[in-house]
From TrEMBL:
The gene is thiH. InterPro entries: Aldolase_TIM (IPR013785), BATS_dom (IPR010722), rSAM (IPR007197), rSAM_sf (IPR058240), ThiH (IPR012726), ThiH/NoCL/HydG-like (IPR034428). It comes from Saprospira grandis (strain Lewin). Its cofactor is [4Fe-4S] cluster. This is Thiazole biosynthesis protein ThiH. Pfam families: BATS, Radical_SAM.
Amino acid sequence: MRAPQAERFSELFEQYDWAATKASIYAKTAADVERALASEKPNLEDFKALISPAAAPYLEQMAQKSQALTLKRFGRTLQLYAPLYLSNECQNICTYCGFSLDNPMRRRTLSGSEILMEATALKEMGYEHILLVTGEANKTVGIDYFERAFKALQPHFAQLSMEVQPLKQEEYERLLPLGLHAVLVYQETYHKEDYKKHHPKGRKSNFTYRLDTPDRLGRAGVHKMGLGVLIGLEDWRTDSFFTALHLDYLERKYWKSKYSISFPRLRPFSGGLDPKVPMNDRELVQLICAYRIYNEEVELSLSTRESEHFRNHVIKLGITSLSAGSKTNPGGYVVEPQSLEQFEISDERSPAEIVEMIEAQGYEAVWKDWDKAYSGLLSKV
Ligand code: SF4
C-alpha cells in the first residue's frame, strides 16, 4: 500500500536525516553510476549516484546523455530573461547578501515611473520575459506594491516572473490575473541548522514557512516554480538531493505546474561571505547533467553569476534559459546605474553579444518563455 501523500513538503522532509542522506550519496560506487546512466527512468537513488564523487570519471558520458535529452525535449533553443530589481530594502539578515539589513547602504525602492523607465530599457534590448526582484520589506514592497508593478508592466511584456519574499496563497492568486507567470523561491540550503545560522533575523529565518512556499504556489495554480539552493553554503551534493526530492514531490502533487532549477554559486559582494563548501566548474557541469538525466522536463537556468567562458561551454549540455546583461541593483539599467549591487555579476556581455554567442553555436535565442504558448497550442489540439 502506498503511503498517504504529505499535505506539505515539510512533512516529507522531516522523515529525512541530513547526515544519513549525505553518507548515502558519498557511498555510491561506479556500478551505481553505470546503472543510473543505463536507466530509462532514473529515480532519486540514481540521482544520488550521478551527483556523487563516484560519477566524476563519467563526466563525458553524462554530458553526452544530457545534451541528447535536452535536444530531444527542448530543441536548439535557449530562452533569455533579465532581472528587474525593484527594491533593495530588506528586513532580513542573510549572511551572503549585499542587501542584508545589517549592511549599511542607501535603500531605494523604484517608483511607478522609474519601473517603467527600467522596463523600457529592457524592452529596447529585446526582452519579453522579465524577472521582478526585491528584498523583503513588507511595508514598502508588499502585495499592494507588487500589484501596482504588475499592472504597469503587464501590457508591455509577454511574461512576468518574480523572485521576492514568500507570499500567502491568496496573494499569489491576486497576481495571477495580472500576468504572474513564474515564481522563483530558492531554499538557499536544506540544512536546517545552518539555515538558521545564515538567516538569524527577519521572516526569512522561518525555515519551514519558506520550505512550504512551493506548496502555496501549487495550490494557487502558479504556472511555473523555480527551485534551487545557494551553492557554497553547505555540501552541494546533499543540498541538490533535497532539491531533487522537493521537485519530485511537487511534480507529483502539482502536476499542472512547470518547474525550473537554478544553480547560483556564491558570488562576491561588499562585505561578503566565502563559500563554506566550494564547487568547481567540473562539479557544476556534473550537477547540470545529473539534473537533466534525472528529469527530462525540468528547465535548467544559468545566470550571469557564471563567467563568460563557463557559460559559452555549458549552454549545449542541458541549460534551457539564460539571463543576459543583468543588473542586480534597483535602477541599475538607467535610473541609477551606480547604486550598490546585490552581488557582482561575472558575465558582463550585452544581450546582443549573448545572442551572437548562442547563434554561433547553432542555437536560437528565444526572448519569451515559449512554454506557455506551447501549452496553449496543446490544449487546442
Ligand atoms: S537574500 Fe533576500 S531576504 Fe536575504 S538579505 Fe538579500 S534581499 Fe534580503
